Amino acid sequence: MRDIIAKSAPKSPYLKTSVSNDMVIQAFDTPFRKKCMAFGILIVILFPFMASNYLIHIANLIAIASISAMALNLLCGNAGLLSLGHAAFMALGAYSAAIMGAQFGMPFWVVVPLSAIVGGIWGLIAGLPSLRVKGMYLGISTLGIHYVIVYVLSEYQFYIGAGFGIAIADPKIGPFSLSTEREWYWVLCMMVLMCGIFITNVLRSKPGRAWIAIHNRDLVAEIMGINIGYYKVLAFVLSTSIASMAGCIYAFYTNVASLTEYSFGLTISYLAMIIVGGMGSVVGSIMGAFLITLVPFALMYIVDMLGITGVIKEYFFSVQSGIFGLIIIVFLLVEPLGLAEIWRRIRDYFMLWPFRYKPLTITKR
Amino acid sequence: MQFLISVIILSCVYAMLAAGFVVIYKSSRILNFAYSDMAMLAAYLAVTLTQLVAGPPIIALSICLVMGFILGVAIYALLIKPMAGEPIFSTIILTVALGIVLNAITILGWGGEMESIPFGWAQYYSLPGGVRVAGTEFIIIITTIIFFIAIFTFYRFSKIGKEMRATAENALLASQRSINIYFVTAFAWGIGFFATALAAILIGGNYQVSLNLGHVSIKAFAVALVGGMDSVGGIIPAAFIIAATELVVSNYINPRLAEAIPFIIMIIVLLFRPWGLFGTEEEIERV
Fold first, then answer.
1. Fewer CB near the terminus (10 Å): N or C of chain A?
2. pLDDT tens-digit readout, A113-134
3. A155-170: string of b/e by CB count within 10 Å (b at 16+)?
4. What does pTM read for this prediction?
């Protein structure tokens, strides 16, 4: 009992001696991590005062991608359910924004939660096959859901006569209007923070533990009394509603909902984010979103700087997606646990430096 | 009658596409998502080879098929084999990533222009009943029949084919009986990519080679799943079902719905009979 009551933070992740220590949100548990987090928050706050509008635009894209990547990571990394329909779930959010926001003129703060509900309902449908099949069959069935959703949305777009996309006005909350990058930056930062805390909390409470159990061995999880079907569908519903919300915010941010944007390729770049970042890690999702969103801009910068023209410039998009593919392949072959794992290794090295002890062996999942 | 012919031709195309998919799945239990991009690459390769190699197109196309086989073996040896023992999820994502790389190579190399593969037999024939059939369509039907007879004979009678079936049934036991399972699986990947290249060439000859080809071949997933992922024989009826439904919907209801209908059928089959119409029930990982 004393152990459970003990509240003192350990000096190192290796020195956890009580349940309450283990339940602390990892990002804040050691003094070193607290300092890192404080430094990070300082950078996030100071960033818009120093950066140009272009850089803030990139930061906003990273923020939206982080929210969506966290949702996908919850489903694929933690619950272990392969989803190939992520782009379609984001498209649902975007079109909710288009239909409810632009056509019916509902305010921003009503549309965002409603889009989450729309995403959740479709997530329920997409989650139903997970009661029957698992592994890659589930992946294929979510791919099927992707095409069904894209069909429904294209039918709608055809019906209202919008060729390439539906324009959406800047959101207004009372007297405030979100139009410039700088205004969006603060809203998006708050959203990433809220989503991150929400998902971390879900993961360290009962559903999170249930998902880890199902991921590791579903048969044993069922014997332990976990209602597998319920938790699998719950993972789908949560993930898709957050993804749909991210899509809704993205549509409001770019002021357009266009079906060409939400192709299968978008799903792949989100999968790249969670693989590069690290499966099943909230911080990993943000790191992955950061890296993968930055890649096209960095490539564009390099191409412009070196003055490359010709085929590479002309088909820049496919160069970019090819590099995505290569990044995923290299990470899967060399470092399957992603950036989060590299970061953990570096951190552990310096935590014990200069007095090295034999590190604890971490079992690979 | 004309409608029936077009159903048959479309189902031949789907059957060929799904064959490459099922052969790979059967032996290595890996869903090959690089599949549609591989088909596109093979089609463009065939276009270039027919322009480069003199003589009748069959020589150039054979070279293309052999190259497909070699590419399949190489991909297995370089990328898939090192992933043995990793979670199946990672391997699938690896094939997805491979697909993107192949797609990028295709676009960079050929620029995504519309091309066509000359078969040298383009005239139309009028059959009794007012049906018009093109020479290329005859080629599709004949090639599909020959291919399926060949693959059944191969599985039934040849030594490698028997070893392949043994490996598919139980890899551990097969390796204990001194079957080189890596060689057998590599060979299966070769055959899979060979079939893909063949299907791509047929599509390219009859319709057109364009970036849309990848989209057509994604429907092969639906065909393979409806038929049963481990059943080569199940492909043919499944392809017929999918092709017929798609054409009926496209002609009489709504062309845009036709794009989604194979996947709707697939989801329904997955919900009620996840191992496919003709697959083995125990095969699938069920919950």
1. N
2. 999 999 999 999 888 888 877 7
3. eebeeeebeebbebee
4. 0.82
Distance between CA atoms of residues B3 and B132, nearest Å: 11
Query: Residues A233-267, buried b or exposed e (16+ Cβ, 10 A)?
Result: bbbbbbbbbbbbbbbbbbbbbbbbbbbebbebebb
Q: Are the beta carbons of B204 and B50 closer than 8 angstroms?
A: no
Q: For residues B154 and B157, what is the distance between their CA atoms, to the nearest angstrom?
A: 6
Rounded Cα–Cα distance for residues A122 and A88 (Å): 10
A169: closest CA of chain B, how far (Å):
29
DSSP H helices, chain A, are 2-5, 19-23, 31-50, 53-73, 86-96, 108-127, 136-159, 181-203, 206-216, 218-223, 228-254, 264-277, 282-306, 311-314, 316-334, 338-352
Shortest Cα distance, chain B CAs vs residue A303, angstroms: 16
Residue A233 pLDDT grade (very low, low, confident, very high; cuts 50, 70, 90): very high
Q: Using alpha carbons only, what angle is made at residue B42 by residues B36 and B47, rounded to the nearest 5 degrees? A: 130
Q: What residue ranges define each of the domains in chain A, with the CATH number in brackets?
A: 48-352 (1.10.3470)
8 Å CB contact of A315 and B108: yes
Tell if the CB–CB gap between B100 and A147 is shorter than 8 Å. no
Query: What b/e sequence results for B34-59 when a residue is b if at least 16 CB atoms lie within 10 Å of its CB, and e otherwise?
Result: bbbbbbbbbbbbbbebbeeeeeebee
CA-CA distance, A246 to A74, in Å (whole number)? 14
ipTM of the complex: 0.78
Contacts of A147 in chain B (CB under 8 A): 259-260, 263
**Tokens at residue A297, please?**
């801009």
**Per-residue pLDDT band at A65 (split at 50, 70, 90):** very high
For residue A354, cis peptide bond before it (omega within 30 degrees of 0): yes
For residues B227 and B239, is the Cβ–Cβ distance under 8 A? yes
Chain A residues lying within 8 Å of B104, measured CB to CB: 318-319, 321-323, 325
pLDDT tens digits along B179-229: 888 889 899 999 999 998 998 888 888 777 777 777 777 788 888 888 887
Contact B111 A76 (CB under 8 A): no
Across A193-219, average pLDDT: 89
Contacts of A143 in chain B (CB under 8 A): 221, 263
Q: Select the residue of A147, A319, A325 nearest B263 (Cβ to Cβ).
A: A147
